[in-house]
Amino acid sequence: MTADDFSTLLRTHRSIRSFQDKGIDPALVDRVLVEALQGSSSSGNLNMVSVIKTTDVARKQHLCTLHFNQPMVLEAPLVLTFCADTHRTRQWLAQRDARLGFADFISWHVAGYDAIILAQTTALALESHGLGICYMGTTLHAMEQIADFLGCPDHCLPVTSMVVGWPAEAPPQRDRLPGTAWIHTERYQRPAPADIDAHFAERERRGRERYLALGPEMAARWAEHGITSLAQFYTSRIKYDPDQFALDSAALEALLRARGFRG
Predict the structure, then answer these.
(1) Less packed terminus of the chain by CB within 10 Å, N or C?
(2) C-alpha to C-alpha distance for 2 and 234, rounded to whole angstroms
(3) C-alpha dihedral over 158, 164, 168, 174, to 10 degrees?
């Protein structure tokens, strides 16, 4: 793949939520995962990650429930769950009479970030083969239930998940903030109110149009909650509710402690 090919791959990325009724060669999936780990940075080369593949229809049905009943979980032939995993490393240490470590908050970050790096490399690799993917942020809100369902031991927790399949749709690429909003030189440049207005103008326009185009039910919900802007929608009770996030954050902190990631 040339640099131009890779640039094209990046420019054509999109989240796919509708898939063809067509399976994926398991050998291709395994090859992509192995190559993705080889091609991803790993802190200390410890490879403190695990990936759990789910293809069984009945098990995907339960995962769908845990992922807030998103239909794409059932439609996609494959669900990949990327885990922060220091369990395997700690077992290796114990079997070599080494001091046990990697049971603290820093280790959670190390393993979790490595899992995210691997997930993104995997996503690009899958897309290079013509497959479509969509990340599921619901993993963070049902982490304990997903971990239990997938049989994750202590010191191993899911960080993110993605559905994978052959695309049955070709949605337009989502807009992103312009580079001037987030690329800084030498030090952080605090945005002025006018900068925020300029940087978010197109995002607000296109985002509002996209959500309201989902149908009259969404428009009615905006009206019901008094939402007049995309910003208000994002922190409303029908999107990323701060009150629910606070509850889920407390649950996540308790789970990290219970599963060995808080010392």
Answers:
(1) N
(2) 38
(3) 60
Which pLDDT value is given to residue 177? 95
Residue 123 tokens read as: 């996503």
- Assign 84 to helix, strand or coil: strand
Which pair of structure tokens corresponds to residue 143?
Answer: 């982490």
Q: Looking at the chain, how many residues does it have?
A: 263
DSSP summary character for residue 22: -
Burial letters 163-199, b for 16+ CB under 10 A, else e: bbbbbeeeeeeeeeeeeebeeeeeeeeeeeeeeeeeb
C-beta atoms surrounding 121 within 10 Å: 19
Confirm if 171 and 210 have CB atoms less than 8 A apart: no
Residue 129 in 3-state DSSP?
A: coil
- Residue 170 Cα to chain centre, angstroms: 20
pTM listed for this prediction: 0.95
